[in-house]
Every structure is written in C-alpha cells, then in structure tokens.
Automatic annotation (TrEMBL):
Keyword Transmembrane: yes
Organism: Mucor saturninus
Identification of the protein by name: Transmembrane protein 14
Primary localization: membrane
Keywords: Membrane, Transmembrane, Transmembrane helix
Subcellular location: Membrane
Lineage of the organism: Eukaryota, Fungi, Fungi incertae sedis, Mucoromycota, Mucoromycotina
PANTHER family, per database record: TMEM14 PROTEIN HOMOLOG YJR085C (PTHR12668:SF53), TRANSMEMBRANE PROTEIN 14, 15 (PTHR12668)
Domain of life: Eukaryota
Protein family per UniProt: Belongs to the TMEM14 family.
InterPro entries xref list: TMEM14, TMEM14_sf
Entry GO CC: membrane
Amino acid sequence: MSQQPSYFMAALCTAGGIAGYVRTRSLPSLVAGVGVGVLYGVAASNIQGKGKYGQETAIAASVIMASSMVPKAIKTSKAFPVTMALCSVATGAYYTKKMVEQW
C-alpha cells in the first residue's frame, strides 16, 4: 500500500516530462521528467517487493522534483508547476514520516 504514492508520482512525472517535450520541444523537460519518474518507479518497486532503500529513493526523487518545481511554482503561479511542487512535497513528507515510524 505504501508504494502507491510512488507509482502515482512516477506516472505524473513521466507524463509531465513528455508533455513538456511535446509542447515546447524541451529536451531537459523530457530527460528530467522521465528520469525522476524512473526514480519513483524504482522506489515503488523496492517498497512493494520489500527491497532496500525504497523509501529513501522516493524521498530523493521528491527532493529533486521539489527543488526544481517549487521555485518555478512561486515564480510563475501556473497550474502545472504548482501541482508538481505540491505533489512532490507531499510525497516526500509521506515517505519521511514512514521512515521515522520505522526507526
């Protein structure tokens, strides 16, 4: 059950990267979106299969996504950056809480 936020973020980041590329031909958007989406996918897979470092990987992906989207959301106030910033911060907080509970 704990892997579902990572699967959601994997799909959201990948779709966002592809949409950014299609709309503006931005190769960095494609690489970043798919790259972070893959990180979230690996995290979800590790969490689901009881592998190592699943929650840590999800937190790292959340930090990467939030560090790029929060400033963009503040600067532009557009819907997509705000949504991505909020989702990445919420996902990072969720997995941080999960890790603290395990300790």
